[in-house]
Amino acid sequence: MTILQNFRLPLIVFSAITTALSAGIFFGFSTFIMQALARQPIPQGIATMQTINITVINPWFMTAFFGPALTCLILTIASCLNWNQSSSLYLILGSLLYLIGTIGVTIFGNVPLNDALAIVSPDSLEGANLWKKYLTDWTFWNHVRTIAGFLAAILLTVSLYNYTKLPN
């Protein structure tokens, strides 16, 4: 048995739990945090989101967000090498959903919007104009990564069933 085979089950469990955790964080933003920020006076909404974007860069969030990316990458490679296992398709699909739909969307959708917001003054006309577009665009991409994270968690959980199922 290879080292990867020894750690495959814990990697799957970790990935399933942490993709669900990430999806839950994004779900909170999609369902009430962004709505609450939109109801604030524009300068306060901008300033609060700017603060969130700074404080989110911490070891706890980074582990919950990038940890499953690393394990999903490992599981994708391992599943491609062991394609004959019944869990491989679910592992690959779940992992790719997280890597593309959550990590990719964050990097190419949400982060550029955060970067643009970071450089505006909350009290400026430029800030007010950006904020209206930011709320719509950022929330759209957040919905995408929320759904991708939940679907990834579901597929990874299904892969656990197939991985642990005893042969008949």
What's the arrangement of secondary structure elements?
Layout: H1 3-39, H2 42-55, H3 59-81, H4 88-118, H5 125-164
Q: Could you give a short description of this structure?
A:
The protein has 168 residues and is an all-alpha fold. 86% of the residues lie in helices and 0% in strands.
Describe the structure.
It contains 5 helices and no strands. Helix content is 86%, strand content 0%. The mean pLDDT is 93. It has one domain. Helix 1 (3-39) runs parallel beside helix 4, helix 1 (3-39) runs antiparallel to helix 5 (125-164) and helix 4 runs antiparallel to helix 5. With 168 residues, it is mainly alpha-helical. The protein has helices at 3-39, 42-55, 59-81, 88-118, 125-164. The chain is elongated and about 60 Å long.
Order of helices and strands: HHHHH
Q: Report the C-alpha radius of gyration, rounded.
A: 19 Å
Structural class: mainly alpha
Question: Hey, roughly how much beta strand do the residues contain?
Answer: under 5%
Q: Characterize the largest beta sheet: strand count, sense, and whether it forms a barrel.
A: none
Show unreliable segments.
none
Query: In whole angstroms, how far apart are the ends?
Result: 22 Å
What is the general shape?
elongated
Helix content range of the residues, please?
over 70%
Helix run count: 5
Count of folded domains: 1
Number of strands: 0
Mean pLDDT reading: 93
Q: What structural keywords apply?
A:
168 residues, mainly alpha, 5 helices, 0% strand
